[in-house]
Design brief:
With about 260 residues, this protein is mainly alpha-helical. It has 11 helices and 2 strands, in the order H-H-H-E-E-H-H-H-H-H-H-H-H. It has helices at about 5-25, 25-30, 30-50, 60-90, 95, 105-130, 140-165, 170-185, 195-205, 205-220, 225-250, and strands at about 55, 55-60. It has a two-stranded antiparallel ribbon.
Length: about 260
């Protein structure tokens, strides 16, 4: 395929993904907005007023970057895993397999679609947070790079989950038993400096800790880990996950029978 054909194939997949989640916006865009608003009210206003400052900032300001990142992570992941698995279930994915579209274009198209939803949710949650606190931007490039790379990483993760899933229950296993615990234990609601030394070491194994803290550094200028280490970790995970996704797609894992 020439460059124009590749671009057309990529654009077609991306536009289809965007139309899919915007058409059913009460299911894809509204619930995360409502959930994050409840977090702002309960954790930020009610509990935060009793906790006081954290990391040199009031508690609401401290948790807002983590909550934005949590919304981006879950939405990017959910969009790709639900969309691609639905295509597998309906067997419409076979149309892509018999086409001359390269596997990397298929992966890039779905990942970009997942990023569009994740980043869209991130923007919505950011605007909602302005009703509760005043955001400041310490390092705009760090904010942009971290949120884009994190969204891409979990979109690729959703693609792998969709390839490996054999039934609808498999789609919810990773978000429920892996993604949610790692997110809650990833420093969204607290600084790991509050933990004993042993648990600080355990927390450093959690990859989401680096993403949340990298984003928090970009907004507030404080972080439990080196922000450049955070970016390095995200890039490594993207490279590994992309390699796995392309290998599975080439083997037809979960697709060819």
């Amino acid at each position: 395929m020439n460059a124009q054909a590749l671009l057309t194939a990529y654009r077609t997949i991306v536009l289809r993904e965007i139309r899919r989640f915007t058409r059913i916006w009460p299911q894809t865009l509204l619930p995360p907005a409502v959930t994050m608003t409840l977090y702002f009210i309960i954790f930020g206003n009610l509990i935060g007023s009793r906790i006081g400052d954290m990391g040199g900032f009031d508690y609401m300001s401290f948790i807002v970057p983590g909550l934005i990142m949590m919304a981006v992570i879950t939405s990017s992941y959910a969009n790709v895993v639900s969309s691609f698995f639905s295509m597998k279930w309906q067997r419409s994915v076979e149309e892509l397999l018999v086409s001359p579209v390269p596997n990397w274009i298929i992966l890039a198209g779905y990942v970009t679609g997942g990023m569009a939803r994740g980043l869209g949710i991130g923007v919505i949650v950011t605007f909602l947070s302005l009703a509760f606190t005043r955001l400041q931007i310490h390092n705009l490039p760090m904010v942009v790079v971290t949120v884009f790379l994190t969204s891409a990483l979990f979109a690729v993760g959703g693609f792998i989950n969709a390839l490996l899933a054999t039934k609808f229950d498999d789609v919810s296993i990773v978000p429920t038993f892996v993604l949610t615990p790692l997110t809650y234990l990833g420093g969204v609601f607290y600084s790991i400096d509050l933990l004993p030394d042993f648990w600080q070491g355990v927390s450093m194994v959690n990859p989401i800790l680096y993403m949340v803290n990298g984003f928090r550094f970009g907004i507030l200028g404080v972080s439990d880990v080196n922000p450049f280490v955070s970016l390095g970790m995200i890039l490594v995970f993207i490279a590994v996950f992309s390699f796995i996704a392309l290998k599975l797609l080439a083997r037809g894992k979960g697709i060819r029978h």
